[in-house]
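Weekly modeling sync, notes
Attendees: AB, CL, MP (scribe)

Item 1: holo prediction request
CL wants a bound-state model with flavin-adenine dinucleotide before deciding which constructs to order. AB pointed out that an apo prediction alone won't tell us much about the pocket. Agreed to run with the ligand included and paste results into these notes for async review.

Input as submitted:
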Amino acid sequence: MKAFVLLHTEAGALPKAALEALGAACGLGLPFSVGILGQGAAAAADAVATCGATGFAVVDAPEVAQPRYASDAAAAAALIQSAGAEVVIAPQTSRFARCLPGVAARLGMAVDTHIVSLAAQDGAVKAQRWFYRQRILSSFSRAAHPWMLLVDSGVNAPWQGAAGAAQAQAVAVDFGESRTTVTGVQSPAADAQTIRPEAALLFVAGAGWTKKQRDGQFHIGRAGGIIQTFLAAAKASLGSSKSLVDLKSEGQETLGFMSHMNQVGQTGSTPRHLKGLSTCCHGEEPHAVGWRFITERRAINLDPNCGWAQGKADVVYVGDAFEIMEKVNALLQS
Ligand SMILES: Cc1cc2nc3c(=O)[nH]c(=O)nc-3n(C[C@H](O)[C@H](O)[C@H](O)COP(=O)(O)OP(=O)(O)OC[C@H]3O[C@@H](n4cnc5c(N)ncnc54)[C@H](O)[C@@H]3O)c2cc1C
């Protein structure tokens, strides 16, 4: 069985997620070739030239300099067809998650997304992915080939090795007429970006920050200051409970820098971080299920019977999160 590793560049080089997918493919022990699309694809192939691939193919046309469904789908389809492999492995980046399921349908391939583990067994590829909001881990294989697998980021070690001369073959692509023009990128300022998947620590704020405190008053401005000071000092990623982000849509005063994108849980995200600190959040099951991939969990809550204390956290600090986090911030700044 032959595999094909399909990658794309980002700002002219392979992103970490691409190197992780390559690392996963190398671990299979199957013969494989590599295809790369995007600006600087040939140089990116040279950067991974010693990965053990039997060959390299690239699409470095101006049409794929920017992510765009139509041109990315055309380039990916041409690369996959040039390889003729039974299994295609690609990183689950937003660029590929958008176009590759469409490519699979176009080429009559089976496709599975969010793969967290790959292994070769008895001549077949075995994959694992989570179902039902990370509650059920399934191991499976498919008889249908060709089979495309999009590998989640953060679960495989990135491939590391020396650069070399990949002598990549340029693949010709018929892009057809494009009706979509990329006119620019709009993104928040770096310090306004609170979701940081690469951060070691996830800091979760719950609705308690916006509730009346012991003096009978709301302290929302103080809460916002404490949280933002901590995020800046610890370079942590910011998560939220559903109750906190729902306050905005209910017209209540809340933390302006928080949105539904921060929500962790059953109807939110399931981020991967080494450590997590929950503050003013009760730790109910629909929230805590989003902590599945947080290795070490701690929580600060006034209530010694909160959900975190029911076996959901490694350490629970029973205390006032305002006071505790102000002390933590002072320590971080001293
Ligand atoms: C179908 C469904 C899906 C859901 N999906 C999600 C989801 O994806 N994510 C999610 O988060 N929720 C989800 N929920 C809601 C979830 O069940 C809880 O209602 C929600 O997580 C509660 O948020 P909270 O803990 O921030 O707020 P609360 O329950 O109001 O808890 C606030 C906590 O703050 C503490 N507190 C207050 N002041 C302080 C202080 N000064 N210091 C320390 N602690 C303090 C209180 O003791 C309390 O424990 C879902 C519910 C349903 C039914």
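Recorded for review: The chain has two domains: 3-170, 190-333.
Action items: CL to compare against the apo run; MP to circulate these notes.
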